[in-house]
Amino acid sequence: MKLPENLIQKLENRKQNNSLRKLPVFNNLVDFSSNDYIGFAKSESIFKSTHAYLLENEIFENGATGSRLISGNHSLYQIAEAFIAEFHDAQSALIFNSGYDANVGFFSAVPQRNDVILYDELSHASIRDGIIMSNAKSYKFNHNDFEDLERLIQKFPDTNIYIVTESVFSMDGDSPNLEELVGLSEKYNCYLVIDEAHTLGVFGEKGEGFIQYLNLHHRIFARIMTFGKGLGCHGSVILGSKDLKEYLVNFARSFIYTTGLSPHSVATILVAYQQLEIEKQNIEKLRHNIVLFNQQKNLLGLKPMFVRSKSAIQSAIVPGNENVKRLAQQLQDKGFDVKPILSPTVPEGEERLRFCIHSFNSEEEINQILKLLETLFFKI
């Protein structure tokens, strides 16, 4: 059956704007695009340990068989959630099937009709989708601008206010001043919710995340950790009080009305967390590579084109979908997998090359790609 004409027109508009998305073909290029920051997704040790764990515990099921509230709450969930809660020094942990499910579930269920949500304007799409589903009123504040945030807070006295931001932003790689933000939330008795998707495995002695690294975690209402990035597997967890966990089990629709993760998936999460407990070399190598990348881009005069970031995400602004796609293709032709981020994913004029740094990138690869970027960029 033919696609409706109005949908065909939307696709045609994307083509005309040079912003049509397509699934990429797997390649063997040098990885500067994936979120596998410390190489856990490629870890043979984690793969084999997960398999051994399942065999040793005689767990042979392929699927969860149902939602966790019906038949899918297999024993591995309790083991993994207890381990994760202790790892993150939290009262409770509740695993969701993905970071998207966690954000949609939280924001659609927790803030109520007479509450207010104040969210950073660059918050991830999954946060904004959850907010749209909420009955609470919502307002965005300027990116990392706490004067603007405080102005909004003062408009809603005697109201439950949820402040929402990310500890590392996925497109810019920058971070808010989290100490200042925590102080502001406490000043007005707000509920602070932090998405930590891009900090697990990156910040902290054991990769426990930015909030815990700063020792602010006991002053946060909820932390949302995603496993598909630094942990190298799939799923997500919401960390908070025991009451919050009980509430989400009862009211978060993306948790209630979906089949649970398979035992193999949850075992992989558990084994990956156990690896974080003892992993030091890869985390330290990642930090070294982030410092090296920043030093080299400064030496080559590329600093003005990059968004300021001390995280594993480094974004070079190249305005125009056509320009950034062409530059990305040239880098790929030279053997480096760097992806262009196009509008409307980012605002028009803020298109960028998004470099993801990993523990397994060599110093030579970092030097080569930045020298190549310098050569190509000034030819645009």
Walk me through what this model shows.
The protein has 380 residues and is an alpha/beta fold. It has 14 helices and 12 strands. Strands 2-8-7-6-5-3-4 form a 7-stranded mixed beta sheet, sandwiched between helices. Strands 9-12-11 form a 3-stranded antiparallel beta sheet, covered by helices on one side. The chain has a two-stranded parallel ribbon with strand order 1-10. Strand 5 (161-166), helix 7 (178-187) and strand 6 form a beta-alpha-beta unit. The radius of gyration is 21 Å and the shape is globular.
Lay out the secondary structure.
Layout: H1 5-16, E1 30-31, H2 44-56, H3 75-87, E2 92-96, H4 99-109, E3 116-120, H5 125-133, E4 137-141, H6 146-153, E5 161-166, H7 178-187, E6 191-195, H8 210-213, E7 222-226, E8 236-240, H9 242-251, H10 253-256, H11 263-278, H12 281-299, E9 313-317, H13 321-333, E10 336-337, E11 339-341, E12 352-356, H14 363-377
Parallel strand pairs: 1-10, 3-4, 3-5, 5-6, 6-7
Antiparallel strand pairs: 2-8, 7-8, 9-12, 11-12
Helix pairs in contact: 2-11, 3-11, 4-5, 12-14
User: How many DSSP helices?
Assistant: 14
**Number of E strands:** 12
Alpha-beta classification: alpha/beta
Q: What spatial order of strands do you see in the largest sheet?
A: 2-8-7-6-5-3-4
The residue-averaged pLDDT reads: 96
Question: TL;DR?
Answer:
The protein has 380 residues and is α/β, with parallel strands linked by helices. It has helices at 5-16, 44-56, 75-87, 99-109, 125-133, 146-153, 178-187, 210-213, 242-251, 253-256, 263-278, 281-299, 321-333, 363-377; strands at 30-31, 92-96, 116-120, 137-141, 161-166, 191-195, 222-226, 236-240, 313-317, 336-337, 339-341, 352-356. The chain has 14 helices and twelve strands.
